Amino acid sequence: MWIPTEHEKYGVVIAGFRGTVPHGLSLEIGDTVQILEKCDGWYRGFALKNPNLKGIFPSNYIHLKNACVKNKGQFEMVVPTEDSVITEMTSTLRDWGTMWKQLYVRNEGDLFHRLWHIMNEILDLRRQVLVGHLTHDRMKDVKRHITARLDWGNEQLGLDLVPRKEYAMVDPEEISITELYRLMEHRHRKKDTPVQVSSHHLFVQMKSLMCSNLGEELEVIFSLFDSKENRPISERFFLKLNRNGLPKCPEKPERHCSLFVDLGTSELRKDIYITVHIIRIGRMGAGEKKNACNVLYRRPFGCAVLSIADLLAGDTKDDLILKVYMCNTENEWYQIHENIIKKLNARYNLTGSNAGLAVSLQLLHGDIEQIRREYTSMFTHGVSITRKLGFSNIIMPGEMRNDLYVTIERGEFEKGGKSVARNVEVTMFIVDSTGQILKDFISFGSGEPLATEFHTFVLYHNNSPRWAELLKLPIPVDKFRGAHLRFEFRHCSTKEKGEKKLFGFSFVPLMQENGRTLPDGTHELIVHKCEENIRLQDASHYLKFPFSKGHLLGNNHPAIKTTKESFWITSFLCSTKLTQNGDMLDLLKWRAHPEKIAGCLSKLKEIDGSEIVKFLQDTLDTLFGILDENSQKYGSHVFDCLVHIINLLQDSKFHHFKPVMDTYIESHFAGALAYRDLIKVLKWHVDRITEVERQTHNQEVLKAQEYIFKYIVQSRKLFSLATGGQNVEEFCCCIQELLMSVRFFLSQETKGDAALSQAQAIFLSSFPAVYSELLKLFDMREVANLVRDTLVSLPTTTNADESLQGVKLQCIGKIVESQLYTSPESRYILLPIVLHHLHVHLQEQKDLIMCASILSNIFCFIKKNGSEKSLLEEIDIIVNSLLDILLKTILEITSRPQSAGSAMRFQFQDVTGEFVSCLLSLLRQMTDRHYQQLLDRFKTRDELRDFLLQIFTVFRILLQPEMFPKDWTVMRLVANNVIITTVLYLSDALRKNFLNESFDYKIWDSYFYLAVIFINQLCLQLEMFTSSKKKKVLEKYGDMRVTMGCEIFSMWQNLGELKVHFIPALIGPFLEVTLIPQPDLRNVMIPIFHDMMDWEQRRSGNFKQVEAKLIDKLDSLMSEGKGDETYRELFNSILLKKIERETWRESGVSLIATVTRLMERLLDYRDCMKMGDVDGKKIGCTVSLLNFYKTELNKEEMYIRYIHKLHDLHLKAQNFTEAAYTLLLYDELLEWSDRPLREFLSYPMQTEWQRKEYLHLTIIQNFDRGKCWENGIILCRKIAEQYESYYDYRNLSKMRMMEASLYDKIMDQQRLEPEFFRVGFYGKKFPFFLRNKEFVCRGHDYERLEAFQQRMLNEFPHAIAMQHANQPDETIFQAEAQYLQIYAVTPIPENQEVLQREGIPDNIKSFYKVNHIWRFRYDRPFHKGVKDKDNEFKSLWVERTTLILVQSLPGISRWFEVEKREVVEMSPLENAIEVLENKNLQLRTLISQCQTRQMQNINPLTMCLNGVIDAAVNGGVSRYQEAFFVKEYILNHPEDGEKITCLRELMLEQAQILEFGLAVHEKFVPQDMRPLHKKLVDQFFVMKSSLGIQEYAACIQASPVHFPNGSPRVPRNSVPVSMSPEGARVIPRRSPLSYPAVNRYSSSSLSSQASAEVSNITGQSESSDEVFNMQPSPSTSSLSSAHSASPNVTSSAPSSARGSPLLSDKLKHSRENSCLSPRERPCSAIYPNSSEPSQRIMFNHIGDGALPRSDPNLSGPEKAVNSTPSSWSLDSGKEARNMSECGKLMSPPVPPRPMQTASPARHVTSVSPSPAGRSPMKGTVQSFIPSPVDYHSSGLISNSPVLSGSYSSGISSLSRCSTSETSGFETQISDHSVPIPNCNVSEEPMRKESKTPPPYSVYERTLRRPVPLPHSLSIPIPSDPPALPPKPMLVRPNNLENSSKRTEQVPRPRPLPRKVSQL
Question: What's the pTM?
Fold first, then answer.
């Protein structure tokens, strides 16, 4: 049975539980659980991480922990009763754990590892706390470390600042808001502002001395040297090195490590140096023999120097190598470090090239105790302490020191009868009064134990040695008296014995006879001669001698033996026990000399302060002793001395001695009668405070009044104890009289008297301490009245000095902080006067910082100590006194203009926070009664209105993000809780007083805006919080957004008809609220929009305003990241439900639908904009949104904004052409007018003409950068017209030059033709603007299908690439996924005029082939019927799909949606015809290029010939013969007779072209390829025989297709293989579903090599002359193999088989393509094929007799007779007849075809521009019979990638996917058949021009009848052209007859000027 638990409430999971049992709860190790019930070893409860999921789990899996239960019952809450630090650690580490993993994902490795170490460290510290074995101090230290690390981690991860008190988190509800603010501010400042430390320490570790010539032991001496004052500032750190240069005692770290302590901030400067002196221990000379002398001396070795400034940057220098220098002469050794610092290079040099001192240095900051805590290992292992010389900056009481520093400076000695100077060594001893040598009191330096004697180093042969060696003598005080120092001087011989011979000594006593110690300074000592050591054993013998030269002269001693020799030392005493001051000794011994008392007291002020504080207690006893004995005589003198001592302790150097004085007063002071004299003298000074001559002294007295009162109070207490409390009234009277004098003195107005004002300020500054002392003798009420009377006596603010006001407020602040304020009785007395002064100051906006501090303290105290009754009363007083002025103050200080970087900014920010916390504290502590009293206090409605407006304004200020730092979430939540509580109180007043007749729009508007700002605060968006943080906030405050939202709804409903005043103003704010992802809030607020629509409908009959405002705000709000898909659905459903029964339902539904669609696009736009790089998704989404604003919403401003956003995206992506088209949209909205335009976006205020001019220039620049120069030319012309109309010839000239430069770029620069790709986006996971739509995209330069596919998959990483080209079914459309279907498509140019014209260079035509394209085509091969395994071409059909876009490419985007699809099918026979046509055209083009020497090598032609002749893969044309020439196919397809004939003709034509090509190839083939050429010739004859050509040898010989004398002429310098109109002939041979086209090369499953480019051929649809580029398809190359391709390859459109080839394939033939740059792209002239595929007839068009097809005045038959440009002259009319008479190759009759209107096909003769100009040469050209194939290339170049494809792949070379770009031209006729008349062509002699080599040789028949050409278009004929076989004639007899009758020559029209396409 399940029993509710009593004590087992909380636990931690110690083993994972999967919850596999029924009702089991899955748990992980470390989860915390709350237990509800128990039963037989099982618990029932829930994990705190998911309270909604309850279940059962084993009890033995849970470790129970102590916890307390709140709200017992159904909603009980368990709080663990563990240390708050542990609780915080646990929750924080859990939050960090999740974020820590995210750091790894975001690749923030540094923070990831640092946080990992911190987390482990916190866990270790947590274990120590949980064990519970730590001492109190250690526990405190551990908690400090824990909280420091928690704060660091929170700061690094951007988490909230945690307010703490004594390392524990505080509950904001348990403390006042002012205290909370202070805690937050303290932690914030601690985090932002590094603590300024005044104490620093230098750690030095000696490692080794590196030198090659060592061999002796060394002494290394470190010290700090001040080069500015030229003196050492520290003691010495002394250590010894062995012969190897390593520390002599490595096992004792303190011997080679030292800490130089107590360095002040002023000592961290660049002129402080670390000096290192090195002394060697050895022979006199470094190079002496080892046996020369056995005695060792201290001798100079070297010196090193380092500036401490080098450590300031990094604080640490590990393994630092210091260079060691040696002085040139030993005389300079004493100042070698100074010479090195001053860089006097002549005085020192390096000791050796490789000498160096290895040390480690580290600069530490903080007091020494802090250093001990933070670097415990340093002190644990051992480190010596090196002090500063003398006392530190702050002398601590109790510090015991008695150190005498002695510096052995120099000596002056005689030669002593020797020829050379002496080698002098000085030995120092300390000798006591008995003559015994004191042992172990000489310190060489820290790190070395104390010694008994000291030996200086020896300078070689120097009678004036200078040592400058510093020693410390820590002699105890008891041994100091009577002791003296003895210095013995010895000459060190360098002889073999090496003896040291004594020749003199000096001594100096440490203390004089009068008790004073040896004075500080330099002493010149007498050198006494001495030869025997026995004489020195008895100290008394020489102590009677004078010891110094000064002593000798002063005492007139009789002459001693000699005084010429001298010895100098410098002494400095650092003692807390001994003094060198005689006046101090005289004062302390005042009883011995009573007559000197007055003098001693007067001299006390001249004694150094350090001497006084050393003997503070003795001095005070002396003063009060003198006062007790003779107060009348010495009372004022003692008082003055006491004042001097008290003020001395105010000095920062001695302020630590204040506790010493306090202790003296409490424990040692015994002056029971002193209070009378002290009060009397003090009152005397106060009464004379205004006397000018005593002002300075009086101020000194006032400064000391705190301690004077302490002495008075303590003296009175001692007197009361001694007398039993006598004379109380007398004492009270004296105090009252004293305070009356004080009050009178304070009440005096200064009136410019600075001294009086200063005196008042001094008194007030110490007054709080005075009444604190009085509390020891008087009760609270009495003292409170005294304080109140004193404060009342202060002058008013207006009349008082400003400097005094600050002191006055400080006094009030101390009162509030004092014990006096804790009692309710005294507080009731003091609070009104305190508030009065605060009110006066706040009224005048003075001393705000102090006012804020006082108010904060008041509220802190009320929260802590206020009882219920006193709290209500005090809050009443504060509300009545300060609420209004508090609000005004906040408004005032927040409205002040402040510069962002000034110091005042931070000051005001701090003050604002203080005042805000005070206001919030006051409001939180106000109850219903207080609010009611507050509202009742306003007598008029205007006063209430002003108050409400004021407090609403203040609240809006409090809600600003910059009010508190961003990580102060705790403070913000508390503030919000107070604000919403107050607003709920005040909303009642709003409803009661400002509705109906009393309605006030301003106050209601302020209320609503406040509520909206409140809800939109970032700190209330719980969705952004972690789950634990969200849970805590909801438990403590709930969701305050919902509460405020409900209040908004309630207030809105109360408005009634007044709602119309807020429409549409509140639509935006309310919309912003509804966009917050809080379901309850949305459900409450969205219906308000229905209400607005309803009231707007009532008022104006529509809700256009509502719609406009909604749309405007939606864009800006959603672009900020607000709103989501859920909101869109909720908005739609709620409002549709609301308007179901409204009369205006239809218009409402329309509005809701519009807004919903806008949301869809805005959400897509926002999601796309989150991506890092600019991609097609961003651009496409922007285009969708832009079009929506234009078409559906007609929002011009938003439309223009998104135009510029799209423009910027294009520029960022370097889509310059698209950027130009985009900006053109804005340009089209402007006119050339002078209408002024406002400043908008980045445009300044300017006229419409100026803005349009700027846009034109920008667009031209973008077109130029995008190489779309033709479009730029149009704009240049437009703006040039404007310049010309304004006669602005300067700019007109510039524009014409710019236009000319664009023409030059068209002709000179190369442009790549982009690839186009069809992309289908299927599935519901795509954005709305892409979902289940298909687009055509313009690829980037050099981008092929595989690269494009990869780019799209990168943009949509979750998408699945579809591997087929079939249209997807509904399953794909509705799938919850993303599917991409991508394949390449071919553009179909619209503009045929330029493409049909001859003589136009390819770089001009290339623009029209890939620009302004609406239609694209794709071919998909498939098998219909049974597939023949031996020959797949029998059943291989092609499905041709035409895609029509909504806009042409290029445009404002790189991709546009497909608007319409058209699908047709091509039969296998039509496919074969098209393949052969394309291959024949390719062959002709290559041959022509070879002849005109456009190819630098012949490899492309060789490969193409080899691929056709030696079809090694697919069997060549024989496959077509097997498929279509067999009897079975002919019988089964009688309708294909004409097509079969056409295919036969093409085969024969190909054979003749190959024969001619072999002839050209033989001419140009290099020698090394001759064998290949011979092989090709042999195989060609085999191929001819397979075609049966040898049977018709006679016919072919006589046929015009084989010219014995020449071949068709080509215009000089023309584009190769362009057709002239004279020889145009149309031979229809395709099915109704065929579109003549040529594909680019593609990587095919049936071709052996991948080609690299695509050529274009023309085709025409049934409706217009449209030009198509054939999409590559495997079917088009299926002739290239005897085996068909695998079905999965042939049916997979997006694969590389139908897309662009792989890059590696494209590079296979780069050797052959060396004649073109990689960016050059071949372009062909493209002509419309106007023939109807189902009804083809063959025309023999002669000369220029045909008219343009587009002439509307012509009938159908006339329009059908068109010209086809051709440069191939294959036949004449007569030759055609001869050919047709052979009867072998007659074509079947052609049925009539319907009439269609076609685009004009102009009759233009190809005229190539010559380098010198474009004037055509005169000449004639014969009329040409057209080729059976009407596709003619005009721009193939030898090295084009088009030609580098699979030439070696047999018949695959004949496929459509491996041919060059071609053009065809066929006519369309009406439904009835039209007979074509024969035309007789007259013959003219042909002019031959031999100036220029012919483009290629032409064999000409004698029967040819050339047609004369107009002189303007005549072209010279090449002189000696080789033969190129013409196309075979396939004309019907009736056509031949008709053609013989036509003899009239129609003049050819002149070429029209080239037109640039319109934008």
Answer: 0.63
